[in-house]
Amino acid sequence: MNNTVKELMERKSVRVYEDRQIEQEKKAAIVEAALQAPTAGNMTLYSIIDVTDPELKQKLSVTCDNQPFIAKAPMVLVFVADYQKWYDLFCKYEDTVRTPGMGDFMLAADDALIAAQNAVVAAESMGIGSCYIGDILEQYETHRELFSLPRYAVPAAMVVFGYPVPQQTERVKPKRLRPEAVVFENTYRRMEPEEFQHELNKVTDRGEDFERWIRAFCQRKWNCDFSIEMSRSVKAMMNQWENKEQQTDEA
């Protein structure tokens, strides 16, 4: 197993950091690695916001589901799905330009997420830990204002970085599902709940306690305030992208 694969196998989220900054040359290398990621049509359909303002980090630690460690992270990058720059350029040179649609939304989000993962892998190779913050998808209206985002630029991912404390380095990585539960040949295969339960038991070791665990997990991750807010927020994001927000207001 080469070092790249080994690091991918061992990488886990890091939420507690040493009280030291990431060196500028390493930070620059992480960003450059992100920019070298695969991108649709070589268009770089994303922008990266480097959050250095402590006050802004503090606000994000609240808006992103009240997670104080965000404010303490030495480096915070927000990856924005961004078609605004291309749309503006097209409009400068073409008389008739269609407005970005949902396909463009998804493609730009793909670009942003691929770039984010490149940054994560690069950081890991330097001994710098990271954690994805999915809650950046919540409170779209607030984040749009915080970052001065135009219509066709929306937050797709946020990643925080820092040198892990020993406890985080030594923490055991949670098991992942087996390939048999995830990889299907040629066509999708819908698993029966009992089969999926069997696969989950292999990585959670819940055994007879599985029903209690899955009920609690459903309440914590699915029937919960942050999940409901995330769905509302992303819908607002998509409506803004498709200009439905204005139409709704006018109606």
Task: Describe what you observe in this structure.
- InterPro entries: Flavin_OxRdtase_Frp, Nitroreductase, Nitroreductase-like.
- Keywords: Flavoprotein, FMN, NADP, Oxidoreductase.
- GO terms for molecular function: oxidoreductase activity.
- This is Nitroreductase/FMN reductase (NADPH)/FMN reductase [NAD(P)H].
- Residues 9-163 form the Nitroreductase domain.
- With 251 residues, this protein is an alpha+beta fold.
- It has a domain at 3-173: NADH Oxidase (3-Layer(aba) Sandwich).
- Helix content is 51%, strand content 11%.
- It is built from 12 helices and 4 strands.
- It has helices at 3-10, 24-35, 54-63, 69-72, 84-93, 102-125, 140-146, 166-170, 193-204, 210-221, 225-241, 244-250; strands spanning 46-51, 75-82, 129-132, 153-162.
- The chain has a 4-stranded antiparallel β-sheet, with helices on both faces.
- Helix 2 (24-35) runs antiparallel to helix 6.
- It is globular.
- It starts with a helix and ends with a helix.
